[in-house]
Amino acid sequence: MRLVSSNFESVEFMRLPMDRRAAFSRLLNRSPTPLVVLTNDRVRLIGLDAGVNSSIPVDMPIPNGNRILLKLEHLGAYCSTGSFYDRLYPWLFLRAELAGFIHPARTRLIECSVGNAGAAFASVARVLGYKNPLVLLPADIYPSRVRQIKELDAEVVFSPSCVGPIGYIKLLEEMLADDWRNHGRPKKGGSSLFPISKIRKVPNEPYAEFLAEVLHQLTRNGLAPRIDTFVFGVGSGNTISQVGFALKRVNQAARVICCEHQEYPFVERLLNGRYPDDIDDWPEPDWPASTIHGVPLKKLNLKLDVIDDVVSLPRQTREEGWFLANNILGLSAGRPTGLAVAAALEIANRVEHQTILTLVFDNLGKYWQERRPIVVPYVVRDDMSDKAFIYG
Length: 392
Known about the structure:
alpha/beta; Rossmann fold; 8-stranded mixed β-sheet; 4-stranded parallel β-sheet; about 35% helix; globular
């Protein structure tokens, strides 16, 4: 199965120099990633490109005759930094180049992130020849994230610690305002500092439509069941909004459910018509629960009308999902993926005979700060140990 996008067939794309077309083709024309199908008695792996279709019996905690689909979106990208953003950022770069806003010889790019997006952004920028891109990171971010981004030839600028996205969005706006005073706002052929995604509402429809089309083809060919529910974290709102919208175009009955930390119910409050104005009184999360924390709604790429419900999970339940992803399935996934897997299991406890999709979108290796055992408490079943050891 090969990626077919209107971007490759457009007149604008064909007008790009041959070396640019070749670079984007390497980044974008990739095979779909594998799909893991979980039921209560077996794990099935569908390798979409090589025709792999293997199944092994295993005792899984999937109740009520439901199936959980894990799409391994952190694999298979040309620029692999260990997250699904590796497959997203080439679309954003291509869209900006086709619109004439950026050029390797004239534009300096900037992005803000809590790690995954920043690494993928820097990696794609290096492949496409954009020199010295800027990545804004919270000062209290994991050192391993900072090292990874610097090794990709990006310059790191720190925003204040303990305020999460509030800090880096404010810093980004200040840097852009200062640059635009000196050079003018970005325009075709211009040379201003250009924010590739944040606060410009550059959506990822091409990636979302491609993912939805792949899933639709799998269903049509009988390789995967029709999707009843898509569950995902909110992040900055882009992926859950765009992928959810694209899936609903294929199946109008599909439900889109956001998962988040029970301690920080941002989306739940938004859906109830209340923006969380008391977040300063909430305890600081051990890791950003959501990149929408404190960011004005008008600056988010979150489409609330796409989201049907919210699943808020306590810490122990999130850790159980992380344990399942790593120790049982061997996916080597980070904690954000653990949240998504735990949410899929929670939904499976509430419904019957449905297919629940989520994305595996980050790699545990990028979180390791040193090679030592990480002790993860969890309780899955009474007959299992109360600790898991994952070695870096």
